[in-house]
Amino acid sequence: MGRLSSPNFSAKHHSTQRSLRNNVVVTLAAIVATAVCATFWFRYIGLSEAPSAIHFYARVTRPRGICLGVRGDAPSYAGYIGLQGDTPDSHRRSFFWLFEAEENASDAPLILTVGGGPGTTGLLKPLGGQGPCILTPNGTVPNPDRITQRFNLLALDHPIGTGFSYGRMVNNSHDAALDVHDFLQKFYLLFPRLAKNQLIISGGSYGGKYLPNIATVIQEKNEAIVLQQSKRAIHIDLESLMISNPSSDPIAHYRWLLFFRCELHSLYDAATCAAMYAKLPECLDLISISLQDTGFSQSANKARRTAREFCYYIAWGGDTHGVIVEDIRRTCNETDTLRCFPHFEWIERYLRDSATMRSLGVPPFFNFTALSDTVEQAFFATGDVMLPAHLLYEPLLSKGIRVLHYIGAQDGNCAWPGILSFLKALRTPFQREFMRASDVPWPTSDYVATTVRAVGEGAGNMTYILIDGAGHFPSQDQPELVKKITERWISNSPWV
Ligand SMILES: *[C@@H]1O[C@H](CO)[C@@H](O)[C@H](O)[C@H]1NC(C)=O
Ligand SMILES: *[C@@H]1O[C@H](CO)[C@@H](O)[C@H](O)[C@H]1NC(C)=O
Ligand SMILES: *[C@@H]1O[C@H](CO)[C@@H](O)[C@H](O)[C@H]1NC(C)=O
Ligand SMILES: *[C@@H]1O[C@H](CO)[C@@H](O)[C@H](O)[C@H]1NC(C)=O
Ligand SMILES: *[C@@H]1O[C@H](CO)[C@@H](O)[C@H](O)[C@H]1NC(C)=O
Ligand SMILES: *[C@@H]1O[C@H](CO)[C@@H](O)[C@H](O)[C@H]1NC(C)=O
Predict the structure, then answer these.
(1) CB distance 331 to ligand 2 below 6 Å
(2) Residues with Cβ < 8 Å from 452, sequence gap 6 or more?
(3) Which of 139, 272, 285, 399 lies at 20 to 30 Å from 392 by C-alpha?
(4) Which of 133, 134, 138 is the best mutation target for the ligand 2 pocket, counting ligand atoms within 8 Å of the beta carbon and taking the most?
(5) Distance (Å, rounded) from C-alpha 169 to C-alpha 229?
(6) Is Transmembrane helix one of the keywords (predicted)?
């Protein structure tokens, strides 16, 4: 049974008032306990505004025994938060799983992690190398390389429709980012002791679209608080972003893709490379044309879809003779390449288990999928993938948000040359230095092939790490190294 440790959890609510801004009061309006799980309803009122009540649905459980770590049952909380528009009849509910830091949980930075896709569960990194336990074909085992030793790790199934999150969906990264801000506001009401802690947001792949949008919305909402335009919101202490193998800039992505696949490596034979090079100029033109209107009108959506569909052949149309695009060191004959990454299968087996689901407080009707087709299709319909999300880094970097890219060099999907290319082109205070900086080996001779290019004090404001021994999923391929990178980045101390 999914259970809430009621005494413990209600005690936390009493401290809610202390840590909120002065002009906000939280009152527990009602507690509705069902036979299965406790369900909390909250009401919060901005005193200096006309009293307007906001209720939201929250359901939190304390999972037991399903993710045993090196130190035994790792303390964690899982459950749902109802987002804007959620009503008892029409749901919009985000699933989260918070793993507490082993050391100094109440002061330790909070790492929010989301999946890629669009539509991939946010639990992949936590259960695939970063959390207290790690997936095997037969469930989980303790994870010696967990980043939860020093950091609170908050996994979010983002956007709605992904993993265990359910209800009315959005269809682009900007609307999805508004949902994350709403989620965090409510999350901090449930866990007020974490609201003062540094926040780091982590993601990869399609996270290259999600993260700059999420950070931008947080930054804008924080600025609105300073300008007193929003009295009710909680200021979010966003410190930095950590991004692995992103899809961010569609132009740089395609401009460099064949260089990686045909020149640096032999992913395709000569005939395929020639056929693809012949399509490249028109692909780049169609993307450029679609960029003339970055709104969501029908014609703008259509221009992006047209570009995406035309360029699709270059991305996925060639025969690789069994080589996995996301990790060119490996071969695999599955038609569904996701199946070449057993973590997807393991995570589905684990999260479809009825005991695991009960422990996480998930409704029994769920049949968990690691990648949601419906979310993917909804995002494809707006051509979100063709939007220039990378440009959002320019104001963020200029305003002091630090940005780390750590890239698996064996990934032919989000290949490193296109990523380094858009990073160089970003117009920020760091541009000149970033272009001139050298790639320095790090951390030891065990990792000779890992290099760091950092600009700015400490671990850098703008930092790029290339990991030779990793593909599209660096935290699965090199968990120990990624833990070292995470600790160094967040402590913001120089690499060498
Ligand atoms: C925990 O925090 C305290 C007070 O900030 C500090 O003295 C101590 O070194 C920290 N412990 C660890 C293991 O980080
Ligand atoms: C998983 O369980 C099966 C059946 O009990 C066993 O044969 C297999 O060795 C186990 N695999 C691992 C990696 O523990
Ligand atoms: C893929 O299929 C080929 C034959 O079609 C076989 O020789 C090869 O071993 C297979 N590779 C894997 C990884 O299963
Ligand atoms: C969940 O979905 C998978 C694949 O679609 C299917 O094989 C499985 O039987 C389903 N499980 C339940 C309980 O419906
Ligand atoms: C995206 O979602 C909005 C809001 O639900 C909807 O009005 C719009 O039609 C959707 N766009 C597409 C292309 O499906
Ligand atoms: C760079 O990061 C540091 C923190 O290490 C911060 O204090 C500084 O403001 C940032 N620089 C710029 C130009 O934003």
Answers:
(1) no
(2) 439, 440, 441, 442, 463, 464, 465, 495, 496
(3) 285
(4) 138
(5) 28
(6) yes
In the prediction, which pLDDT does 47 show? 28
108 alpha carbon, closest ligand: 1
Under a CB-based contact definition with an 8 Å cutoff, are residues 457 and 429 in contact? Answer: no
Radius of gyration of the chain (CA): 22
Please give the pLDDT value at position 52.
Answer: 39
| pLDDT for the residue numbered 334 | 81
Ligand 3 atom with minimal separation from the 332 CA? 13
CA distance 110 to 133: 18
Which atom, in ligand 1's list, is nearest to the CA of 150?
14
User: Which residue has a Cα nearest atom 3 of ligand 1?
Assistant: 104
- Answer positive or negative: Cα dihedral of 368, 411, 207, 259: negative
492 touches ligand 6 (CB under 6 Å): yes
DSSP-H helix ranges across 167-320:
173-190, 207-226, 250-258, 270-290, 298-316
Question: In what helix (H) or strand (E) does residue 8 lie, and over which residues does it extend?
Answer: helix 6-14
Q: What is the pLDDT of residue 231?
A: 66
Q: How many CB atoms lie within 10 A of CB 363?
A: 15
pLDDT at 448: 57
Taking alpha carbons only, the member of 106, 99, 170 closest to residue 374 is 170
Residues 6+ apart with CB under 8 A from 214: 114, 176, 177, 180, 181, 201
Give pTM, 2 decimals. 0.89
Cis peptide before 443 (omega within 30 of 0): yes
Q: How far is CA 55 from the centre of its chain?
A: 27
Counting every residue written for the chain, the total comes to 496
- The neighbour count for residue 25, using CB atoms within 10 Å, is 13
Degrees, nearest 5: CA angle 13-16-19 = 155
Residue nearest to atom 11 of ligand 5 (CA): 382
Residues in the chain predicted with pLDDT less than 50, given as ranges, are 1-53
| CA distances (Å), origin 296, targets 184, 303, 376 | 26, 10, 17
**104 ligand 1 Cβ < 6 A:** yes
Count CB-CB contacts under 10 A for residue 93.
Answer: 23
Q: What pLDDT, on the 0 to 100 scale, is given for residue 2?
A: 28
Burial of 198 (0-12, 13-18, 19+ CB in 10 A): middle
pLDDT tens track for 248-275: 999 999 999 999 999 999 999 999 999 9
C-beta of residue 198 within 8 angstroms of C-beta of residue 488: no
Quick one: pLDDT at residue 449? 78
The closest-lying atom of ligand 6 relative to the alpha carbon of residue 456 is 1
What is the rounded CA–CA span in Å between residue 163 and residue 373? 11
Using CA positions, which residue lies closest to atom 10 of ligand 3?
333
pLDDT for the residue numbered 54: 62
